Amino acid sequence: MNDSERALLDAMAGWACKNTEKDRRSSSLAVFMALREDVKTAMDAGYSRRTIWEFLTDTQKVPFTYGTFIRYVKEHITDSEGRQ
Question: Whole-angstrom Cα distance, residue 64 to residue 21?
Answer without folding.
Answer: 11
